[in-house]
Amino acid sequence: MVKVSILGSTGTIGKNVAFTLAKEETVDEIVMLSRPESFDKVKGETYDMYDALAARDIDCKLIPSYNFEDIRGSAVVLIAAGIHREPGMNRLDLAVPNAKIVSNYSKQIAKYAPDSIILVATNPVDVMTTIALEASGFSKKKVIGVGNHLDSLRLKNYFSRQININSAEVHTRVVGEHGNHMVPLLSSTTIGGIPLKYFVEYVDLNVIALIEQLKNAGNTIISKKGATEYGPAYAISNLISTIITDTHKVLTVSCYLEGEVEGVKDVSLGVPAVTSKNGIAMIVPIHMSDFEKRSFIEAGNTVRDATYEVKENLDI
């Protein structure tokens, strides 16, 4: 039996991940943990989901709870709790209040689900990944941030739509910070097997505009509908399914680095990693252009400074 727990399950991301994951039929039980005052709401969410899942004969068990003991035996525990971004708000503006939540939840996970993998979705996710790692005391391979997985999917989608080509033909990746210091790896991007630098000679493709669109994607969606929803939920449920099915896919997730990429250390950043049922099996070596290397190192410095500042405010 495969069990996954979601902390922050009444939020937009948490409840959508639960429903999306249930539909994928890779999980037997999903614990939807909430605060006691939100328990009725989370029960209502499970009733609504059961009605929808019945239409597809899906028998995934949904467990509403406000008791951390119910996360025992979870293969993956997702931390999706925290205050949300408002229009114009930078992810780093959320850092201190969300770090308090993530730190507390990570300690509870270590107590009740010590064999689980912690997956962090709370923003700013790279900072929160380090907070979760240190608060839980887990090994770094068992604490993963959703990182640039969604950014990479977005860039793939942008290229696909811009040139009207099947997205399966686009191979690209974004590393670094999940934020303004993200680093699209254009030097290794291919379309239909052709390196991007050659492909752009034959099509009308404004790469600079696409990158700006990518960096502003979250704020654009938030300004129009109040929150990002479907994209993050599908990206996170995809990541969870990849972990629990042990398919060893290479996904761009936030990992704590100790010099594996360009000597960057003491910080969590998005990098390509082989994900498995045991967590991070391997950080994949990256070939970057000189500009991409400098940008990656800058991202590391920025996120590390933010992490230190948060830790000082939390006295951890």
Concise summary:
The protein is an alpha/beta fold and 316 residues long. 43% of the residues lie in helices and 20% in strands. The longest helix has 25 residues, at 290-314.
Structure description:
The chain is of the alpha/beta class and 316 residues long. It has ten helices and 14 strands. It has helices at residues 12-24, 39-54, 95-112, 125-136, 149-163, 196-199, 207-215, 217-225, 230-244, 290-314, and strands at 3-7, 29-33, 61-65, 76-79, 117-120, 143-145, 170-171, 174-176, 182-184, 190-191, 194-195, 250-258, 265-276, 279-283. A six-stranded parallel β-sheet has the order 3-2-1-4-5-6, with helices on both faces. Strands 7-10-11 form a three-stranded antiparallel β-sheet. Strand 1, helix 1 (12-24) and strand 2 (29-33) form a beta-alpha-beta unit. The chain is globular and about 55 Å long. It starts with a strand and ends with a helix.
